[in-house]
Design brief:
Layout lengths: L1 H32 L1 H4 L3 H4 L2 H21 L8 H22 L3 H11 L4 H7 L4 H24 L20 E3 L2 E3 L5 H18 L2 H15 L4 H14 L6 H35 L1 H18 L3 H6 L6 H8 L8 H9 L1 H17 L6 H12 L10 H18 L19
Antiparallel strand pairs: 1-2
Length: 420
């Protein structure tokens, strides 16, 4: 009997060590996918060809695992296969329209391959807890870097253009703070709403500190659309909780939050609001660009469906007119990857928020509400790390929908707040 207990204890210890090593490895991989938290000069450290090699290996493994599990009812497996393989259709479309450069091929495949991680997660039985630890470590590291760089922006090396070769990041100032794009906004959103849901449930100081840290992190991006969407989504969260005791706690929490906003509104948002009033030209350019894209799509049906790729000569003309695809969310993504790519996002959002809403954890629904609100300005997955975060959310949703109770934190069917 004692021998069996010792053997079981050793097995449990080895499993813990194994999971810790996997989490650390995946965190390092996430940092690589995120250009080293947007470290300046990163493109010269890890070049595109290395991402391309990684991508071809991952796509090969994902294809193998897809056929291995083709007869198993895995929710969203076809969607993630679409995310992984659709860029090859974009490449073919781009070649048929204007020809395609090897650089463009490498650029496209070097980040869209991240969709293949869904099948790798499934094959190696990643749990929700492991995924949340990976994203949580990434979010905490991002927040620490952001706060540290605000203390002395002149020595900032994170949050700039990875292709820059300067010694420090060139930044703009908003609301008296330097603006850096460290890490990944969607990852910070996931960490915020997970810790927020935990705080609503337990009302503990630990989750309160973590929530406050994530709020500070999101604020330091100094992006008006993100801040408005975050405040709105937090308000919505009070209507999604269950249980009388939890609702009372949530009401107390809401009062505290409202008092805090009232006391510090001018300091936190005063200059940002004034800047927004002064940037009417910028907003007009965005909607003018959207109108331009709609008119252009009527003359190019192939490009509408399959996209134009990422490196076309007329893209330079767009920039000359101050038209930047990254500023118009899913409209901009439709230029690169076509409307089928953009519409696939809304299809999955509908499935999660409507079809499977009773099975999905609250923090994921809050994340989708927040990121969906600003998708007309900021698409939820525009690069490697954002796609990685999105695939992680899709994978966790599939675990709940498919009742993989051995891999989720909440063992019940109802979407209670998961425990870490």
């Amino acid at each position: 009997m004692a021998t069996n207990n010792i053997t079981t204890g050793k097995y449990d210890f080895m499993m813990i060590v194994k999971n810790i090593m996997i989490v650390i490895t995946m965190f390092i991989l996430a940092a690589i996918l995120g250009n080293g938290f947007n470290l300046i000069g990163w493109s010269y450290i890890v070049q595109v060809r290395y991402y391309l090699l990684m991508g071809m290996i991952c796509i090969g493994l994902a294809t193998l695992y897809f056929f291995q599990y083709r007869n198993q009812p895995i929710t969203f497996k076809y969607y993630t296969a679409f995310i992984t393989l659709w860029p090859f259709c974009v490449i073919l479309s781009s070649f048929l329209q204007d020809g395609i450069l090897i650089e463009e091929f490498s650029q496209i495949i070097s980040w869209t391959f991240v969709g293949s991680f869904f099948f790798i997660f499934y094959r190696f039985r990643f749990s929700e807890k492991m995924i949340l630890w990976i994203l949580g470590l990434y979010a905490l590291t991002t927040a620490v870097i952001q706060i540290a760089q605000q203390m002395d922006p002149l020595f900032a090396i994170f949050g700039g253009n990875p292709e820059d070769v300067g010694d420090v990041v060139n930044t703009e100032e908003r609301n008296g703070l330097a603006r850096f794009f460290v890490g990944c906004i969607p990852v910070q959103m996931v960490a915020l709403y997970y810790s927020w849901c935990k705080m609503q449930k337990t009302f503990s100081i630990y989750w309160g500190i973590l929530t406050a840290l994530m709020l500070v992190s999101i604020y330091l991006y100094l992006t008006k659309q993100v801040l408005i969407s975050t405040i709105f989504t937090i308000g919505v969260s009070f209507y999604m909780i269950k249980g009388r005791r939890v609702k009372i706690q949530a009401c107390v929490l809401a009062v505290v939050c409202l008092l805090g906003l009232a006391l510090f509104w001018e300091d936190l948002f005063g200059e940002l609001i004034q800047d927004s009033k002064d940037e009417s030209f910028s907003h007009a350019i965005r909607f003018e660009f959207i109108e331009y894209i709609v008119d252009y799509n009527l003359t190019d049906p192939i490009g509408v469906l399959f996209g134009h790729g990422t490196s076309k000569p007329w893209f330079a003309e767009l920039e000359h007119m101050l038209y930047y695809p990254s500023d118009i969310g899913f409209f901009g993504e439709s230029i690169y990857f076509g409307w089928l790519w953009a519409l696939a996002y809304f299809y999955v959002v509908f499935r999660i928020m409507v079809t499977y809403r009773h099975k999905i954890p609250t923090y994921i629904k809050l994340f989708i509400i927040c990121s969906g609100m600003i998708s007309i300005f900021i698409f939820p997955y525009r690069n490697r790390i954002e796609t990685f975060n999105w695939i992680c959310m899709i994978y966790i949703c599939s675990l709940y929908i498919d009742d993989r109770k051995d891999l989720v934190l909440d063992k019940e069917t109802e979407p209670k707040i998961p425990k870490i």
